[in-house]
Amino acid sequence: MKIGIVCYPTYGGSGVLATELGKGLARRGHDVHFVTYQQPVRLNSFQNNVYYHEVNDADYPLFQYPPYDTALTSKLVDVVKYENLDLLHVHYAIPHATVAYMAKKILLTQGRYIPTITTLHGTDITLVGMNQAFHPVVEFAINKSDGVTAVSNSLKKDTVSQFNIEKDIKVIYNFIDVARFQKADKDHFKKAIAPDGEKILIHTSNFRKVKRVDDVIKIFKKIYEKEKCKLLLVGDGPERQNMERLCREIGLCHEIRFLGKQEAVEELLAISDLFLMPSESESFGLAALEAMACQVPVISSNIGGLPELNVHGKTGFLSDVGHTDEMAANALTLLQNEPLLQEFKTNALAQSSNFDIESIVPLYEDYYQHILETSVYDYKSL
Ligand code: GMT
After folding, report:
1. Per-residue pLDDT at 315
2. Quick check: CB of 13 below 6 Å from ligand 1?
3. Which residue has the CA at smallest separation from atom 9 of ligand 1?
4. I need a labelling partner for 53 at 20 to 30 A (CA). Which of 61, 227, 275, 307 fits?
5. Atom of ligand 1 minimally distant from the CA of 14
């Protein structure tokens, strides 16, 4: 198949997942064309069958907001036509589902039908999509996609309850490459960070408010009062400065390291004992899955798709959002009981194998095939 993939090219989970999906499909012999405004971060080396088309800069002094949607639509029309694509798979509904619909309409006027699939990732539904500024457009564009997938049952449920959806939504979970995310021996890192054998806690995110990084720090403080440990904060984003201030206020700067954006996050996970994800909203929790594959149990909130990934009392613990006392107590239960911690680490690894790229990419492949066979070339329905 010749597949076009549209995504956000940055460190966000949707872009990471879309890029890994494209690379996985290319390894299985498909031609994959990424169309976006910047080279996706995970598309950092040559791979056969993978192509990248950069959306041209649509800036002009008249525009207060450069019309990226228009530039992306034009690029898609071009790529579908000249690369002879079979389908378009867009990740994150806003604005990609709308852009795909527009490209489809334009191509129809040229006698070309291109089926489109939209994957819903989370905040495009749970936060941004529900905003009245976007709601009617998101609803319309989802219904005009030939196929729709969501990354968890929880996200599917949220979508159906918040929008008037006429399509069946197929749930296909997030995945990871278990060959990449595995516990490697990085003892020299561990010694540098925790020279006295302290336990290491880790949080990775884009430091948006929804991640509740302040709760991560509050949980750490409560744990630290009982058990000497270190906290690694990986990633960057709008809340970073506030979090640095919070660390200074509670006087724990010497125990908390802000590492910024990191390419090889698996090397940091490899030396960590617990992963903290107290998010307010989380459609799946790709970062937690990456941790579990590196044998790191997860202390998380019980929101969104997290209970579909993190099994309470087995791979980690789940608590209501904001219940930092309980989260800290759960963390201590593991940190102060080495055999139990080891058991949870083994369970986390076992659970992560259910989300291996090798078993999930074929699900997308089958879904593509299904959409190609069933999507109808019908002017009226468009
Ligand atoms: O987690 C983020 O804030 C990034 C966001 C994105 O769309 O880039 O991630 C969402 O998609 C990921 C991949 O499907 C999911 O694993 C994350 O749970 C989801 N984030 C939220 O729902 C907050």
Report:
1. 98
2. yes
3. 13
4. 61
5. 8
Report the first-to-last Cα separation within the chain, whole angstroms. 24
Looking from the CA of residue 305, the nearest atom of ligand 1 is: 18
Instruction: Give me the pLDDT at residue 128, please.
Output: 74
DSSP secondary structure string for all residues of 158-194: HHHHHS---SPEEE----B-TTTSS----HHHHHHH-
CA distance 303 to 212: 13
- By most ligand atoms within 8 Å of CB, the mutation choice from 282, 298, 352 for ligand 1 is 282
Tokens of 305: 């798709």
For residue range 27-80, list pLDDT tens digits in order: 999 999 999 999 998 898 889 999 999 998 777 888 888 899 999 999 999 999
Separation of CA 285 and ligand 1 centre (Å): 7
Domain ranges for the chain = 2-175+357-374, 187-355
CB of residue 151 inside a 6 A radius of ligand 1: yes
- Establish whether residue 203 lines the binding site of ligand 1, counting it when its CB lies within 6 angstroms of any ligand atom: no
| Cα of 39 from ligand 1 centre, angstroms | 19
Residue 306 has phi, psi (to 5 degrees) of -60, -40
Return the CATH number of 187-355, one of 3.40.50.2000, 3.40.50.2300, 3.40.50.1000, 3.10.580.10.
Answer: 3.40.50.2000
Q: Pick out the chain residues at pLDDT < 70.
A: 11, 129, 377-382
Q: Is the domain covering 2-175+357-374 a CATH 3.40.50.2000 domain?
A: yes
